Every structure is written in C-alpha cells, then in structure tokens.
Amino acid sequence: MAKFPKSQPRLVPLLLLLLFLFSLRHSSAAYSIGVNYGTVANNLPPPSQVANFLKTQTTIDRVKIFDANPDILKAFANTNISLTVTVGNGDIPALSKLPAAQSWVANNILPFHPQTKINIIAVGNEILATADKSLIAHLLPAMKALKSALDLAKVTDIHVSSPHSLGILSSSEPPSSGRFRRGYDKLIFAPILDFHRQTKSPFLVNPYPFFGFTPRTLNYALFKPNGGFFDNVTGLNYTNMFDAQLDAVYSAMKKVGYGDVDIVVAETGWPSVGDPTQPDVNLANALSYNGNLVKHVNSGKGTPLMPNRTFPTYIFALFNENLKPTISEQNYGLFKPDLTSVYDVGILRNKQVVFRGGILLHQHQHGACPNQTLAMRRSKRT
C-alpha cells in the first residue's frame, strides 16, 4: 500500500474546503437568486453604478424594483439581468382600461425593452392587504389589460402578475390546511390563478418567517437545527418555516384547482438591526436567514409538498434605506450605500475566504465586509 507524505493530513481539510467552495459556486449558478432594489433613501449610488456592481461583482441575475424608474431601466440595459417593474397601487383603476394600459406600456416598457431584460410587470404590491375594495376589484382587469397591451405591442416575453402577502390566507398551520380567505378564494384568487395558468405567468408571494416566528420557533424560522413541525394530515415533517409558508400557499392554490401554477418568491428577508425591544434582530440572525435561504433555494430540493420544484427568489433588500420609518425597516439591506457588504450571503464574485470566530465569512475586491465579527451585537425587528 502506498504511503502518503506527512503533509497529507493538512491537505485533506484544504481539499475539502476547496470542494465545498466549488460546490457553492456550482449550486449558485444552477438556480436563481434575485434582490429587491428599493430606493427610499437619499444616499444611494446612481443606478448605472448599481447595475454595473450587480453585473460584475455579484451572481444576482434578477432584480425587482418598486416602480418603473426610467433611470434604472436605462442603467440595466445590456446587463442580462432580468428586471421586474412595478405598477403603483394608485394607478391600478385607470390601467384596467385598455387605452390606459397601452399608454403605460408605450411609456414604461417599449422604450427600454428588449435592451433591458424586463421579465415581469408586477401590478401593485400586496393589494389584498390594503383592504381597498376599488383596488381589489380592478386588480385582475388591470392585469388583463396590461397583458393585452403587451400582446398588441408584440411583446411576448414579459409576464404580468401581482405580489401578495401571506395575509391572503385564512389558515396556514399546518401547511396542508392552507386556504385563501373566505370570500376571496373563488371570487378573487380562482380567476387570478386562471389568468396565470392561461398566460403561463407566475403567482408572486411574499413569505416572511420574520413576521411569523416566536422565541420558541426562532431556529425553525432561521433554517437552524430544530425539532421540526409535523403535519399530521400529510405525514410530512417541516424543518423550516419558509417551506411551511410556501406549502400553505400551494395548499390554498390546490384547493381552488390551480396547484400547477408556478410560484415566485417576490420578497423575503430579515433585518440586521432593530429597536431595543427586538432582541432577535441582529447581524447573526440576518446572515443565518438569508444565507441559509440562498443555499436552500439553490439546492433545488423544493418543499415537502413540492419536491424538486424551484422558486425564483428575491431577497429584500439590496440596500439599507435610510428614509424608511423604523430602524429595522432601514436595515434589511445586503449592502450599504457605499456598496460594501453588511454581510455576505454567498452572492459575491472574486471572494477571498476568511474565518473569524469559527464562522466562514468573505472578503471581495470592494474590501472586507464591515463589522463582521458577529459578536452578536444586539438588534431587533418590527
């Protein structure tokens, strides 16, 4: 039997580390992680700098914005980054008429597409949560009118959808019990899902374990080791709240006959700083949630009820936004306005591996991720 040189024990951990990093890079290329690019701040870099940074320094391949800002749309031209643009809630009633929808498409889509790779028009944001009967009544007509306007303009590669909070569900625990709110199931969501099926467009949802955890379920929310949650109806065990929330949505969709419609996670995240009353909002927990989320999404495992299905996922948010109303809302960002990392969830290119305190961190060519000792600085959540 051949003898290994004495240096071999040191080589084994190094080789394992290299294989681990290679697998991370390989898996991140397989599926899709996006980011929400909010602009409620007065200190953000210009859109052209943001677009170039995302293209050259990150593996982000899709971005969602909360308007149809022409400067942002121009900046992402020829980057091959897919953009979701948003119709403001207040514009929905007018856009339920085809002429207005055609005008909106002519002003906000046609000047930029296809040089800018727009892939979804999000009609409003969490309309059901507004409880505004006029907006709710006009939502599907506006979606249909915008789809017709795109068809008339011979634009066939842009989907029309609308993001929904999990407030659309009247029940979500266990996941098999998931159902849409009574009165909205057949009247609102069945027709919306039928539109998605007919147009092959995705149903957008905003699952936030951050808003659903208790101290007892914190590890469950953060993808950390935990006792799990057993669904007696299906016999399936859940090890994280993200999967449970998605499966509750799927159960609701299936109950009205549309379990085949694709799902996109339009928003999810965890803030890194909060108020004194929010002890579970800190850098370590934000890194745990978003970092584990990226690995989970990239694994392609799907969920217990939807094995092997993939869900394009948009992390909230790209930047810390200093004009948001609360401390935690100001600190959802993966990056600071100077483009340095708040923390790295595995989306940076050209990484240099760094270990601190037994935690795998990273540096990239923009400099070390600031304040990453992860000394559990106390922070909080809304």
Task: Compile the SSE list and pairings.
Layout: H1 8-30, E1 33-37, H2 47-57, E2 62-65, H3 70-75, E3 82-87, H4 92-95, H5 98-108, E4 118-123, H6 127-130, H7 133-152, E5 159-161, E6 163-165, E7 169-171, E8 179-180, H8 185-199, E9 203-206, H9 218-221, E10 229-231, E11 236-238, H10 241-255, E12 263-268, H11 283-299, E13 313-315, E14 352-356, E15 359-364, E16 367-368
Parallel strand pairs: 1-2, 1-13, 2-3, 3-4, 4-5, 6-9, 9-12, 12-13
Antiparallel strand pairs: 7-8, 10-11, 14-15, 15-16
Helix pairs in contact: 1-11, 5-7, 7-8
Tags for this model:
382 residues, alpha/beta, three-stranded antiparallel sheet, 11 helices, 34% helix, disordered N terminus, disordered C terminus, glucan endo-1,3-beta-D-glucosidase activity
In the sheet with the most strands, the strands line up as: 5-4-3-2-1-13-12-9-6
Order of helices and strands: HEHEHEHHEHHEEEEHEHEEHEHEEEE
Which strand-content bin applies to the residues? 15-25%
Mean pLDDT: 88
DSSP helix fraction? 25-40%
